[in-house]
Amino acid sequence: MNKKGLVSLISVLLGLIAGAIFMLITGHNPLEGFKSLIQGGTLNLERIGNTIATATPLILTGLSVAFAFRTGLFNIGTPGQMLFGGFCATAVGLTYNLPSGLLVPLMVFVAFLGGALWAFIPGILKALFNVHEVVSSIMMNWIAYWVVYYTIQGYFKGNMETESRLLADTATLRAPWLSNLFGGSYLNLGIFVAILAVIIIAFILNKTAFGYELKSVGFNRHAAEYAGISVNKNIILSMMIAGGLAGLAGVVQYAGNANNIQIGVMPSQGFDGIAVALLGANTPIGALLSALFFGLLYSGRGFMSAMTGVPPEIADTIIATIIYFAATSILVERLLDKFVKSRKEKKTQSAALTGGAVSSTDNKDENYGFMPPNSSDSSKNNAKKGDE
Amino acid sequence: MDYVVEMLNIRKEFPGIVANDDVTLQLKRGEVHALLGENGAGKSTLMGMLFGMYQPDKGTIKMNGSEVKITNPNVANDLGIGMVHQHFKLVHNFTTTENIILGIEPKKGLTVDIKSAAQKVDELSKRYGLNIDPYAKIENISVGMQQRVEILKMLYRNADILIFDEPTAVLTPQEINDLIEIMKNLIKEGKSIILITHKLKEIKAVADRCTVIRRGKCIGTVDVKLTTEADMAKMMVGRPVSFAVAKKDTMLGETILKIEKLSVQNNKKVLGLKDFSLEVHAGEIVGIAGVEGNGQSELVEAITGLRKIEGGTIRLKGKDISNYSIRERINAGIAHIPEDRHKRGLVLDYTMEDNMVLEVYNKKPFSNYGLLNRQAITDYANKIIKDFDVRSGEGGASIARSLSGGNQQKAIIGREIELDPELLIAVQPTRGLDVGSIEYIHKRLVEQRDNGKAVLLVSLELDEVMNVSDRIAIVNNGELIGIVDAKTTNENEVGLMMAGVKGGSKNE
Amino acid sequence: MKKNYLALALCGILSLSTLTGCGGKKETATSKFEPIKADFTVGMVTDAGTIDDKSFNQGTWEGVQGSALKSSYLKPAGTTEADYLKEIGNLYDAGFKFIVTPGYKFETSIFKAQDKYPDAKFVILDGAPHAGDYNNVIKENTVSIMFAEHEAGFTAGVAAAVELKEGEFGFIGGMEIPAVQKFNWGFQQGVNYANENLGTSVTMKEENIVYQGSFDNVAAGQQLAAQMFDKGVKAIFTAAGGVGVGAITEVKERAKKGDDVWVIGVDVDQYADGIYDEANGKSAILTSAVKYIDQATYDMIKAEAEGNFPGGKQLTFDAKNNGVGIPATNPNLSDDTVKKVNEVFEKIKSGEIVVAATGDGLIK
């Protein structure tokens, strides 16, 4: 197991322990609680399907945040991008009467474009005027909220004020075969969109020159600039791809898990994407796994409430506690580092006592890297702390 | 013997490291005692214990013959030990007097009695020849003056033992001379000084005795007058060190870099470089000498494309590259060893492999149709790592952050030289490195020149510029003061030019 | 040893909290409903908003609790059909087979649920199941309950106008949906009726009739109310969930300072929420336009317990069956006002006054 995976697992474990303590404090049996929580997400095929379906938009928003983060950007605009992407898809789905095989890919495409457009604005503001993307993308959330609100009410209003008209079955990602396979769950083709996105993003990040550039900018934009990599171009592109991924979350949510777009609510999956990305260590596969974990929590929560009598508000708090701890993976990482380090130090110290010679494992300092071969024997016997 | 401070058989361990092992340092009354050692040798730890920041694990500290326990810096203060730090601890919008009395303000009723304090500052200043204006604001005075404020701060607190931590790192040669005078005045007035440094020339100039430590161990204490610089260097490094950079005569080739009337804004949006003209030929090393912040960074960034120019032209082999992008300039044959290897030189979280292709990742064979060719990258990186003797835990797979500074720098230099550039710009290539590394890097720069390439060396270390360069261009306040031949000039001339005196000391 | 202490400490916390938990449950004694004896359990899925929203969720839950049967409510994560169905499924799988859902948003999910869980009973308030095409299909295991909001609004409008006699009134709605619109329209008709027949002179300007656009933006509600009061509005009728809560916050602050301003509550008796002077029990809520959601819910549970669940039917709760109106007690209304309002209410019951459920000739 690599270190990142271990950190995430420990975070989850801490989250579950914190949740358990919370259950104890509120007078519920944690074992019962967790049992029904897990049952709620996995009891039968339908529930498993629902868990995966709940996770689907989270995979994409998590991927969106993680991807931007790799380029050193904090995309907190996922809710707006998701909403706008979903809106574009819904608008296309409600406007054009095409065969399903054409219409659905078109919707997925415009969802990506819509989300990308919504993230392009903070991207270009950041690149040209150094406006912090956190500020501008949060504002874009509310612009999306009201633009969609207004446009849906004006042009795509259903019989209910809070929703658009319903999408025809040919204009959704729903697939009866898949739904039936999972006992009538609302699982839909969106999961394939999400998995494909994970694969493509992983490929871009790890195998392409473009991914190399993006990561360079993310890790150290000064060095990237020095090497002739266009920082601005990469910031804008990275924001757009991140936005596009959030836009895909919009289409899988509104034209997959639902069959119309809800207005007057900011999609919670957007902000959850941040926690998903954090727990997933900002890697594509990590986002996939942590989104599934979140999906399990969200689907199992209601069943836990119904079975154990934990009021939904407390259940929400428990879930939030688990997520909170799960998202503190950075803290866990630090602790883990410290732990490993002190273990190593203990080892070297005991070696020092027995052997009399001390070697340092920490070679971050600025010195003695150039010891010529004839002095390498003595370089084991190195003291170097504190001369900074 | 009349020792004011004795640190006897000191041992200090940090987890995993013995920082000081049986170190003895005895400071006589009224002497300048140098503490010599490479970076990381344990100098600061030793002084930290004298200043009360750490407690020794073994050994004793005596003052005037009786044992003392210095449990914290306040105790050190009370015992009359003062430290002039390398990085000044001054409040910039306060006056010198306000800075000096900070923390021990004399009170008159409820108000601070600035007037009497200023008077005392003035007296002290006159007595020790410090020449400090008690009412000047820190932000308006020179670096050398700021350092004197730090010294006066210690004197104001009645310190008898002054520790100077690398005091000359930030000074011009003239300011260094002034400082040496001040130190001599201090001694005359009965103070004792410990001078922490790794610069042998200064030790020779001012110190009476010198204690050398290497990797935490006390190598010995020598009488400076009876010891040569080479001997002290040998004690410090553990092997003979050559100071002179062996160079063949220059074989001047065509003009590689031609800068004409270049003007560049600095970060404060005023011209940091004004009407600057310079040529660098194939087969020569041109050094830029100057005190930090006099236009060197602006010059380098303008040539490499990191900074927009306001006027003038930059030509590379006759081609006007003033409007080229950074990448285009790299492709045209400019390589750049950046000033700050952590800020610009490396992506610290990338592996060494990835760092070695920072400028060429998108070229064949490292990528085909946008896909990275891992094997080609690994082979290329391994070659550089091998050729330039870059040492790391896992070779190319090591994370750059995990390498020592010297190895990071070697890797950068290897990467840039491997680009086979027409012009190699090396900015502070040996900053923070030990003598051995410096020697190696200088050799590589000269090798590049001998291979018929042009090298532009920017350094704040005058010795480095003087030893490595063929010609030296001196900048002051963004202007070219003059260009001198390295073989015929001397430190005094260059130093005066660095201070802005045109023509240097030639007329003297 | 350490572990043992920890375990002890945890046990202590556990037992303490179970004790308080038990204590809490016993407090629901002062219900206006008779406990029902039956062996089924009642589940509820909430709409957007919290269980104590002083409105639909709360009213429904009070009706459920009034039955004193074992009950549980669940809060969906979102407002999609899938979200609602998931919670219905959770209740069903956990053994709650009598399920109450407040709000028209449940229409399509109940449509699916009534087929999917044929052995469960469903009550949908303020809506009727359909497949998304508004062709209502109410199966034998489902009851649809509608309310005559316009009649409630009318009654509250008359009461407010008669009590305050003159001045400017305003209206803050949540989203522009039928139930909210009908409150608005009814209220305006009530004010007009009082002006024409009961000698009051209350005016309502178009600028003071606003649909905020959400049910949860408390801050916006407070802002809107502040603007209206600043413009001289004397009383605001809120039909806006959380937005209304914001308006109530504002009116309390102003009433505390001695301003003569009021809010007319909605859905449930909001008198207690408007109390700004704890010592004297003074509230800034003039009266409320009430839908007896709790009564409707309780009635359905009772019907099921007695074996005559009106499955397959749509029931309308209006003035005639005391399903809407103003609260039974109104400390802020004078006896004279109450008398006049009761007369008007009787006329609605008898059909002498017909309140239109449309906005023809009215503002917004």
Structure commentary:
- Chain C: This is BMP family ABC transporter substrate-binding protein.
- The complex is a heterotrimer of chains A (388), B (508) and C (364).
- By secondary structure, chain A is mainly alpha-helical.
- Chain A has 15 helices and no strands.
- Helices cover 72% and strands 0% of the residues of chain A.
- In chain A, 59% of the residues are buried.
- Chain B is of the alpha/beta class.
- Chain B has 3 domains: 3-237, P-loop containing nucleotide triphosphate hydrolases (Rossmann fold, 3-Layer(aba) Sandwich), CATH 3.40.50; 253-333 and 421-508, Rossmann fold; 341-420, no CATH class.
- Chain C has 2 domains: 33-147 and 294-317, Rossmann fold (3-Layer(aba) Sandwich), CATH 3.40.50; 149-290 and 334-350, Response regulator (Rossmann fold), CATH 3.40.50.
- Chain C contains 10 helices and 14 strands.
- In chain C, the strands form 3 sheets. In chain C, strands 2-1-3-4-5-13 form a 6-stranded parallel β-sheet, with helices on both faces. A 6-stranded mixed β-sheet of chain C has the order 7-6-8-9-12-14, sandwiched between helices.
- Chains in contact: A-B, A-C.
- Chains A and B meet through α9, α10 and α15 of A and β2, α1, α10, α11 and β20 of B.
Nutshell version of this structure?
The complex is a heterotrimer of chains A (388), B (508) and C (364). Chain A is mostly helical and 388 residues long. Chain A has 15 helices and no strands.
Q: Which terms summarize this structure?
A:
heterotrimer; B: 508 residues; alpha/beta; Rossmann fold; 6-stranded mixed sheet; 17 helices; 32% helix; globular; C: 364 residues; 6-stranded parallel sheet; 14 strands
The overall strand count of chain C is 14
**Neighbour order of strands in the largest sheet of chain C:** 2-1-3-4-5-13
Radius of gyration of chain C equals 22 Å
Strand content of chain A: under 5%
Describe the oligomeric state of these chains in a short phrase.
heterotrimer
Proportion in β-strands of chain C: 15-25%
Number of domains of chain C: 2
Largest sheet: number of strands, sense, barrel closure of chain A: none
The largest sheet of chain C, given as strand count, sense and whether it forms a barrel, is:
6 strands, parallel
The ordered H/E elements of chain C are HEHEHEHEEHEHEHEHEEEEHEEH
Distance between the termini of chain A: 36 Å
CATH class of the largest domain in chain C: Alpha Beta
Distance, first to last CA of chain C: 72 Å
Secondary structure class of chain A reads mainly alpha
Overall domain count of chain A: 2
